[in-house]
Design brief:
alpha/beta; Aldehyde Oxidoreductase, domain 3; TIM Barrel; 4-stranded antiparallel beta sheet; 42% helix; elongated
Length: 291
């Protein structure tokens, strides 16, 4: 999925406008108003206070171009590049009052996005040399879904479904109480129904055991099987069974995967590794605005 397509300009503009208003800009920036002369021009640098993967500059540039707040952001780095402590990410120029009024909103957003991208990059680097890909989940901050997923892409990961609507993911709760045979029968009907009336990015089913895997592997119309909370040894066995029965079906590891365990999961031979931590546990990184 293309990062710019994932985060369209109208979403950027609506969100930035809402977040600036949330910070009280409509009521007035009392601190700046009593100190800074209206119309005074300034240029200030966005500076990394810690090592990070740069993220968020491109969408902020697009947003400022449309919103007409009298500010421009000139990046000196590209989203996805690595910045060291003290490096400038770009320069924010325009009316000083506007810069000071929007400073915290912009820094908060960039800090969050850089945090997600940096966390993602750590997982991507941890499985370097394998064929597996790191994918996000729906464990995103409410209101930041598309921004978080944009950051995952810039960190080197891939994006899972955007929401409930664009792909089918049948999980264990959908089949509670069913035997593997009953689960396969229900899933066969569900896949046919899901594909009959809409275009889906993929159809995926979660399995907890190798018995469930064997039951669903032959089903037509299945794109991905999620291996939930399986050990690397069991996942390796799942890969061999997949290769024998349905080699086109992708296998995705999931369930509490950490930086300490992700390499073993990748080396089991799975195609994808779903990591909720890259968005759920990401830390807002420190970016400063210096004159």
């Amino acid at each position: 999925m293309n990062a710019a397509t994932l985060l369209p300009t109208h979403v950027i503009v609506d969100d930035l406008d809402r977040w600036v208003r949330e910070d009280g800009i409509d009521e007035g920036d009392i601190t700046t108003e009593v100190l800074v002369e209206v119309g005074e021009h300034a240029s200030m640098r966005l500076v990394a206070r810690e090592d990070l993967v740069v993220c968020g500059l491109e969408p902020v540039v697009r947003g400022l171009e449309v919103l007409g707040w009298g500010l421009t952001l000139q990046p000196t780095m590209r989203d996805g590049e690595t910045a060291s402590v003290g490096e400038a990410l770009g320069t924010l120029s325009g009316d000083r009052c506007a810069i000071l009024g929007l400073e915290r909103t912009i820094l908060n957003l960039l800090g969050r996005l850089c945090g997600v991208a940096t966390c993602t990059r750590r997982f991507v680097d941890a499985i370097a040399g394998t064929d597996a890909l790191i994918t996000d989940t729906r464990k995103t901050m409410p209101g930041l879904r598309l921004w978080d997923k944009y950051a995952v892409l810039r960190g080197g990961g891939i994006s899972h479904r955007t929401g409930l609507h664009d792909a089918a993911l049948f999980k264990d709760n959908h089949f509670a109480g069913m035997s593997p045979v009953e689960m396969a029968a229900a899933l066969s009907r569900a896949i046919a129904a899901a594909r009959s009336d809409r275009s889906l990015a993929f159809v995926e089913v979660e399995v907890d055991t190798l018995e469930q895997l064997d039951a669903v592997l032959p089903l037509p119309g299945l794109d991905i099987i999620l291996l939930d909370n399986m050990s690397p040894e069991v996942m390796q066995e799942a890969v061999m069974r997949r290769d024998d029965v349905a080699p086109a079906v992708k296998l995705e590891a999931s369930g509490g995967i950490t930086l300490d365990t992700v390499r073993a999961a990748a080396e089991s031979g799975v195609d994808r590794i779903a990591v909720g931590a890259i968005t759920r546990d990401a830390t807002i990184l420190d970016i400063g605005l210096d004159a």
